[in-house]
Task: structure prediction
Amino acid sequence: MLYLLGENLAPVWVVNSFPIIKFVLLLLILISSITLIVVVMIQQSEGGDTVNSITGIKETYFSKNKGLNREVRLKKMTIILSIIISVATIAFFVLTTIYGGSLWG
Result:
């Protein structure tokens, strides 16, 4: 869109540092994605009335809420990492579109 208004609207420091900005955004996306995969793999599935498959006894209140703090932290991390990945990806492609250049070089 900036090419419609004029060619030299971008500050020089942004144009010169754009490869570094792209690299940092891609690194942020990569690290966040790998961390998100690990966090999702660690989370336990949410089941309604779970019954112990060995003993056939329903879980007690204590056994259900024993790991609540851990599960809550993992859910929050999942949400935060998803937002980071989304924002960084949108920023990467918007900056690539505005300031031109290829995606990787």
In short: The mean pLDDT is 76. The two ends are 21 Å apart (CA to CA).
